[in-house]
Amino acid sequence: MILTVTLNTALDITYRVPSLRPHASHRVTDVTERPGGKGLNVARVLAALGHEVTVTGFAGGATGRVVQERLTRTAGVVDALVPVAGATRRTVAVVDARTGDTTQLNEPGPVIAPAEWSAFQEVYEGLVVDADAVALCGSLPPGVPVGAYAGLVRTARAAGTPVLLDASGEPLRRGIAARPDIVKPNADELAELTGSHEPLRAAQDARRRGAQSVVASFGAEGLVAATPEGRWRAVPPARIHGNPTGAGDSASAGLLSGLVERLPWPERLARAVALSAATVLAPVAGEFDRAGYEELVGRVTVTGEVTAA
Amino acid sequence: MILTVTLNTALDITYRVPSLRPHASHRVTDVTERPGGKGLNVARVLAALGHEVTVTGFAGGATGRVVQERLTRTAGVVDALVPVAGATRRTVAVVDARTGDTTQLNEPGPVIAPAEWSAFQEVYEGLVVDADAVALCGSLPPGVPVGAYAGLVRTARAAGTPVLLDASGEPLRRGIAARPDIVKPNADELAELTGSHEPLRAAQDARRRGAQSVVASFGAEGLVAATPEGRWRAVPPARIHGNPTGAGDSASAGLLSGLVERLPWPERLARAVALSAATVLAPVAGEFDRAGYEELVGRVTVTGEVTAA
């Protein structure tokens, strides 16, 4: 079982409008809703790849009930979200049908009470011992201490469970110091963490801060990995056009999937890049195109050097 | 008991953002939620005036549950909404904190199945015989026949219950022909119905189409009434600045309240104008400022002529 943690779960709502004009009234022509938050996206991709996944984090209120009802209907995903008094946040993506552009409105999410944070930690400790790997993903809701990920990384390591961290800002900075197995920043997060815009140098610097392996995503240019076994760059075969929402989460799912299957790093990276590209290809944001994935995975170019033993 | 009907109920969500920019991502700084739809707004104002109110219409899905939970907590309001399979629509008002302007996103609402429409009519027939007055308010959801209000007006009249109709377009046109006691169009709806922009002439024309009394709202300029007892114009004492959301619904509540208390028309109109202005004054959209109402109600100017007996 792979465990994914989403402390700031969401109900992701997409509205299609003919044309978005500020200060006007709009009839929404199409509404879609799905459970959101990075860890839930990772879980869905892992489940589609055939892994058993358990999701934890927080859920509350009417929106939390909708998130949990939807998760229960997702094959391969077990819901272990912890109840909170506040309501799970909504995110609203307003898609302008004329231009295809998206305007995003993100609710702040509920404030997590100290007792709720304690209850979550207890649930997490119970789950992490049975997990083959853990993913800690996304922003922290108000009320959760900024060192939360550092604590959760230490708990996973104490249980002997490999842990991937996908966060940003101070929670990432503190989480790295607790020595996670993999951190997966994007270009901006890596530059903010290290002050360097040179990919390999920045990835090496992030390793020195505590991460065993750093896999940084550079959008259409693929991934850069700095690991104890070597350094690689993995690039998709062609520039993919589409909606990049969730592409980073699909890359995390590819890395975790390759980790629990004990694949060598170049194969893990090829899987991560192909899943990421197949997510950009898919018509629905956050889904991946399976045929596209099967076709792309053999065509990812991985170049690099293995560390001398 | 006063009965209000809202066939297209909603969960009204208000988002405050620092500044709305299309194609950007926004952190919502403040979220408020309330049951919406014109008949529910009328019910809330009537309850605040001390009347017993029953609300009916449709509710479904997670948003419908939230609407019903909130109504249950509103003193003086009894929930008789009829369950439907589809989810009650949301409306999202995005308030730009910099300019104060509002951008509105309205979901279409669930399609009402024929069996659900029949179930509603049965509930309505049971409620209308015990009601002192009925208000039929707002748009029709998909699946409800365009002649719906005409049928509901006839049912009320057969039960001897006075009925106010606040609708627009073809449902208003057909509803008027069924001879409601009061229709309450705004300036645009009245002009669309009659083709005339001259208030009193248009109101008289609407009476000829079947309405016993016509009370048309002209925003800050107040109300124009054409009734069997006479014709009046009611004007607030000063131009009121604020948010006009719900002002028309407060006017409907004032008219119904005055009807069941058997007030003479000039007093009903003064109450309707004062409630409407007190709603514009209130900081929260759709609420009314009680002190403002008490102060304004004696200062509304009502001029007109009584029909010779």
CATH class of chain A: Alpha Beta
Largest sheet of chain A: 11 strands, mixed
What pattern of helices and strands is seen along the backbone of chain A?
EEEEHEHEEEEHEHEHEHHEEEHHHE
The quaternary state of the protein chains shown equals: homodimer
Average predicted local confidence, pLDDT of chain A: 94
Return residue spans of chain A where pLDDT drops below 50 for at least 5 consecutive residues: none
Helix/strand-derived class of chain A? Answer: alpha/beta
Give the distance, in angstroms, between the N- and C-terminal Cα atoms of chain A. 32 Å
Binned, the helix content of chain A reads 25-40%
Strand proportion of chain A: 25-35%
Tell me the CATH architecture of chain A. 3-Layer(aba) Sandwich
**C-alpha geometry of chain A:** globular
Biggest interface, residues from each chain: A-B, 29 and 29 residues
Q: What is Rg of chain A?
A: 19 Å
How would you describe this structure to a colleague?
The structure is a homodimer of 309-residue chains. Chain A contains ten helices and 16 strands. Helices cover 37% and strands 26% of the residues of chain A. In chain A, α1 (38-48) crosses α8, α6 (187-194) crosses α7 (199-208) and α8 (247-260) packs antiparallel against α9. Chain A is α/β, with parallel strands linked by helices. The first copy, chain A, is globular, with a radius of gyration of 19 Å. In chain A, strands 1, 5, 6, 7, 10, 11, 12, 13, 14, 15 and 16 form an eleven-stranded mixed β-sheet that branches. Chain A has one domain (2-8, 36-88, 109-306): Ribokinase (UDP-N-acetylmuramoyl-L-alanine:D-glutamate ligase, 3-Layer(aba) Sandwich), CATH 3.40.1190. Chain A has helices at residues 38-48, 61-72, 114-128, 148-158, 169-177, 187-194, 199-208, 247-260, 265-281, 290-297; strands at 2-6, 10-17, 25-27, 30-36, 53-59, 77-79, 82-83, 89-96, 102-106, 133-137, 163-166, 182-183, 213-217, 223-227, 230-235, 301-306. At the A-B interface, β3, α2, β8 and β9 of A face β3, α2, β8 and β9 of B. β9 of chain A pairs parallel with β3 (25-27) of chain B.
